[in-house]
Amino acid sequence: MRNKVIDAQEAAALIPDGATLGTVGGGGGLVEADTLLAAVEQRFLSTGAPRELRVIHSLGIGDRDRRGLNRLAYEGLVRKVIGGHWIWSPRMQALAREEKIEAYILPAGVTAQLMREIGAGRPGLITHVGLGTFVDPRQDGGRMNGSARDELVELIEIDGRTLLRYKPFPVDVALLRGSYADVDGNISMEEEPANLEAFAMALAAHNSGGVVVFQVRGLVDAGAIPARQVRIPGALVDAVVVEPEQPQCHAFYYDPSISGQQKVNWHLDASQRKQAAADERPGPRAVIAHRAALELFDNAVINFGFGIPDGVAKLVAARGETERYYQTIEHGTYGGELLDGVLFGFARNASCMIDSPSQFDLYNGGGLDIAFLGFGEMDKAGNVNVSRLGGTTVGPGGFMDIAQNARKVVFCGMLEAKGVEYEVNGKSIAIKRYGQIGKMVDEVDQVTFSGPHAIERGQKVLCITERAVFELTEAGLYLREVAPGIDIQADVLERMEFEPIMPAEVRQMPFVGG
After folding, report:
1. Which DSSP state fits 135?
2. What DSSP assignment string belongs to 71-110?
3. Strands (E), 209-320
4. Are 265 and 320 in contact (CB under 8 A)?
5. Does residue 335 contact residue 88 with C-beta atoms inside 8 Å?
6. Cα end-to-end span (Å), the chain
7. Does the N-terminal or the C-terminal CB of the chain have fewer CB atoms within 10 Å?
8. Contacts of 406 (CB under 8 A, 6+ apart)
9. For the purposes of burial, counting CB atoms within 10 Å of the CB of 244, is it exposed (0-12), middle (13-18) or buried (19 or more)?
10. d(Cα 206, Cα 246) in Å, to the nearest integer?
11. Dihedral (C-alpha) 231, 206, 59, 401: value to the nearest 10 degrees?
């Protein structure tokens, strides 16, 4: 028996100055080791140590306020951050904007898989993901501010094919979270809503000669966790911190249907679905969701992104059609009812949960039929920006890994933002006030999705807005459909910074107003 239990303060003391610190989690508190991160914050505020940390994470971690990565957002505590998604940590975003840290972004899938490669001792991650985007060294190389100068990625040639090599580096400390541990350090994740890359991060730190610490809700006797339920073996775990009040997420304490331990009846019968449709408030999001759903086909493997694409997932659930498709999210979850907002990444009654590096293997290899994703900006070449908006570091999360590899990409979003007002009924949509920010721009601020690269790879790309549907062609963005009630010239063309390719006659967009 090896008793590895320590307290959170002892765990924080294991982190030396200048260490590379890896952690795992998702927005809303998903698999977030907040007790450990809070102990690091407390130690720094009390003693000034540790200092000059290099932090790596694949997804957004926090609550847009104090928790998660926000706890590390102090000048002096952190020197460099390589993050896949930053929106859940506005305090870290501020440090990046003010040039107080070196800020980098790598795609979430790339980061998760890079941890696996580091753990395996291989020469980094070699992949096509990121070509033609801001992480390509021919563009920004993932650097997000002037303080960032490291070269994290390089171009290589294999068999006449241009690829990217994301460079490996040692991980000194991993602060992670599970559900239960035995005294030997074997970790179960049975009550967690996802596995993410917890194993890959633990492997990277352990095989780098670093320290692996897990925060768990409870401790059990050696051998009490069935072998099939152990996700991380005790051989990789140096210390365990028990947090009895560990919640499943920020929104609620515990729901077994979220962790896949118990099924609950959430399907609506035919009369309930009819009533739900009647109660749905007509609006532009409903217009987008109903049009986007027409792209679905039976048995398609699909992914829903954060934001407006949530509406498509809700529509599928309200229709009772979840079993017609294989729904996935990059966190490693299949099926069920996908939650939205701060609980994006959670699913109720999931049918399967795998590790996220393996999920990204499915995506990267071409196993995804359709991706429904949001967009911040789109330009005349079909390039899309979701990673830097208004000069603020946002990050793509899993967007790049998904968008670059799906056979069909359906971007879903408003034609304009900020202040726009609509009047929608069951037959048409009218613009009452235009928005202050146009999203169809001459050139995007940062390339998160490359239109030319998509054409080269033979992807089908649509952009569905509340007013019109566009299709990416070799010649550029083609105006395919316009919603009834919309004036093409005043409501579409004059609200864009470029003129799309115009057919002789624009088709009417299949329309459902709510």
Report:
1. T
2. GG--BTTEEEEEES--TT-HHHHHHHHTTSSEEE---HHH
3. 211-216, 218-220, 230-232, 239-242, 301-304
4. no
5. no
6. 61
7. N
8. 303, 363, 368, 369, 370, 371, 459
9. exposed
10. 25
11. -90
Residue 212 phi/psi, 5-degree rounding, is -115, 120
| Other beta carbons within 10 Å of 320 | 14
| pLDDT one-digit tens code per residue, 258-283 | 999 998 875 555 554 554 544 455 68
Greatest CA separation for the chain: 77
Strands (E), 227-346: 230-232, 239-242, 301-304, 326-329, 333-334, 337-338
Contact by Cβ (8 Å): 67, 383? no
DSSP 3-state of 503:
coil
Helix/strand/coil percentages in the chain, nearest 5? 25, 25, 50
Q: So which residues are the catalytic ones?
A: 330
323 DSSP 8-state letter: G
Q: Which residues of the chain have pLDDT under 70?
A: 1, 266-282, 512-514
DSSP SS3 for 491: helix
Burial status of residue 418 (CB atoms within 10 A of its CB: 0-12, 13-18, 19 or more)? exposed
In tens, the pLDDT along 60-90 reads 999 999 999 999 999 999 999 999 999 999 9
Nearest to 231 by CA among 87, 354, 398, 85: 354
DSSP strands (E only) in 94-210: 102-104, 125-127, 153-158, 161-166, 173-177, 180-182, 187-188
Tokens of 136: 């390509």
- In DSSP terms, 26 is beta-bridged to 30
Instruction: Locate 451 and state its tokens.
Output: 């239109």
Q: Global pTM?
A: 0.94
Rounding to the nearest 10 degrees, give the CA dihedral for residues 366, 367, 373, 377. Answer: 0
Q: Identify the pLDDT of residue 282.
A: 66
Structure-block tokens of residue 144 = 């997000």
Mean residue pLDDT across the chain: 94
Token readout for 54 is 């290099």
Residue pair 413/120 in contact by the 8 Å Cβ criterion: no
* Pairwise CA distance, residues 8 & 6, whole Å: 7
Domains and CATH numbers, the chain: 8-242 (3.40.1080.10), 270-508 (3.40.1080.10)
Residues 109 and 332 sit within 8 Å (Cβ to Cβ): no
**Is residue 458 packed enough to be buried (19+ CB in 10 Å), middle (13-18) or exposed (0-12)?**
exposed
Question: Residue 341's pLDDT is what?
Answer: 80
* Cβ contact 439:413 at 8 Å: yes
